[in-house]
Specification:
Keywords: Membrane, Transmembrane, Transmembrane helix
Largest sheet: 3 strands, antiparallel
Strand order of the largest sheet: 1-5-2
Helix content: 40-55%
InterPro entries: GSP17M-like_dom (IPR025889)
Number of domains: 2
Strand content: 15-25%
Protein name: General stress protein 17M-like domain-containing protein
Organism: Mycetocola zhujimingii
Pfam family, one: YflT
């Protein structure tokens, strides 16, 4: 649901909009009545690298090892008689399964996506909106506050 209210300030960056809300919060303004609304949303996908079998296997092994570590430590908590060799075995088994599943998944999807990326949704501008009955107070606080970078 898009927040309703009156626009008290507009900014080009999210950081500037956050700073405006910080100014209001420091002045004991009821910040539950404040919203930051992004306008002109765009989806940006930044390519971070090329995928290969080696890179896929390494990433799968690492995530599997973390999962194995978690289950190994959980086993020690549940059964204190177990020793650290169970944790080591769980890490190795988790790494092997993680590597196997990642390589199989990559092999099946190889021609559809041969790169890694990070997806972001960004806005071209940001507005700070406030409930209409508090708008004048918010504008006065923002106009009297020093600008911070």
């Amino acid at each position: 649901m898009i927040p309703r209210g009156e626009t008290v300030a507009s900014f080009e960056s999210y950081r500037e909009a956050q700073n405006a809300v910080d100014v209001l919060a420091q002045a004991d303004f009821p910040v539950k009545q404040v919203s930051i609304v992004g306008d002109g949303l765009k989806s940006v996908e930044r390519v971070t690298g090329r995928l290969s079998y080696g890179r896929t296997a390494g990433a799968g092994a690492l995530s599997g090892a973390w999962l194995g570590l978690f289950f190994g430590l959980l086993l020690i908590i549940i059964n204190p008689a177990a020793n650290l060799s169970f944790v080591g075995a769980a890490v190795l088994i988790g790494a092997a399964f993680g590597m196997m599943f990642s390589v199989v998944s990559y092999a099946l999807n190889r021609r559809r996506r041969d790169f890694t990326s990070i997806m972001q949704v960004i806005a071209t501008s940001y507005t700070v909106t406030v409930d209409p009955e508090l708008a004048n107070r918010a504008r006065n606080l923002l106009e009297s506050a020093p600008t911070k970078q």
